[in-house]
Structure prediction request, 49 residues.
Amino acid sequence: MDFKDLDPILHSQLRLAVVSLLISVQEAEFTFIKEKTNTTAGNLSVQVN
Prediction:
Protein backbone atom coordinates (compact mmCIF):
# COMPACT_ATOMS: atom_id res chain seq x y z
CA MET A 1 0.00 0.00 0.00
CA ASP A 2 1.28 3.42 -0.89
CA PHE A 3 1.03 6.11 1.80
CA LYS A 4 -1.15 8.12 -0.59
CA ASP A 5 -3.80 5.41 -0.20
CA LEU A 6 -4.18 6.15 3.51
CA ASP A 7 -7.38 7.76 4.69
CA PRO A 8 -6.72 11.51 5.11
CA ILE A 9 -8.52 11.42 8.46
CA LEU A 10 -5.56 9.46 9.84
CA HIS A 11 -2.74 11.63 8.48
CA SER A 12 -2.35 13.51 11.75
CA GLN A 13 0.17 11.84 14.07
CA LEU A 14 -2.05 12.63 17.06
CA ARG A 15 -5.13 11.19 15.35
CA LEU A 16 -3.24 8.03 14.52
CA ALA A 17 -2.02 7.79 18.13
CA VAL A 18 -5.60 8.17 19.40
CA VAL A 19 -6.92 5.49 17.03
CA SER A 20 -4.06 3.16 17.99
CA LEU A 21 -4.85 3.69 21.65
CA LEU A 22 -8.59 3.20 21.21
CA ILE A 23 -8.28 -0.13 19.42
CA SER A 24 -6.56 -1.54 22.50
CA VAL A 25 -9.29 -0.61 25.03
CA GLN A 26 -13.05 -1.02 25.28
CA GLU A 27 -13.62 2.56 26.37
CA ALA A 28 -11.55 5.58 27.29
CA GLU A 29 -12.21 8.91 28.93
CA PHE A 30 -10.90 12.14 27.45
CA THR A 31 -8.39 12.65 30.26
CA PHE A 32 -7.00 9.12 29.80
CA ILE A 33 -6.44 9.73 26.09
CA LYS A 34 -4.92 13.16 26.80
CA GLU A 35 -2.44 11.70 29.29
CA LYS A 36 -1.51 8.70 27.13
CA THR A 37 -0.92 10.82 24.03
CA ASN A 38 0.86 13.56 26.01
CA THR A 39 -1.07 16.35 24.33
CA THR A 40 -3.10 19.36 25.41
CA ALA A 41 -6.85 19.29 25.91
CA GLY A 42 -7.29 21.86 23.14
CA ASN A 43 -5.27 19.93 20.59
CA LEU A 44 -6.98 16.65 21.44
CA SER A 45 -10.45 18.19 21.28
CA VAL A 46 -9.76 19.40 17.74
CA GLN A 47 -8.70 15.90 16.70
CA VAL A 48 -11.67 14.03 18.18
CA ASN A 49 -14.39 16.54 17.41
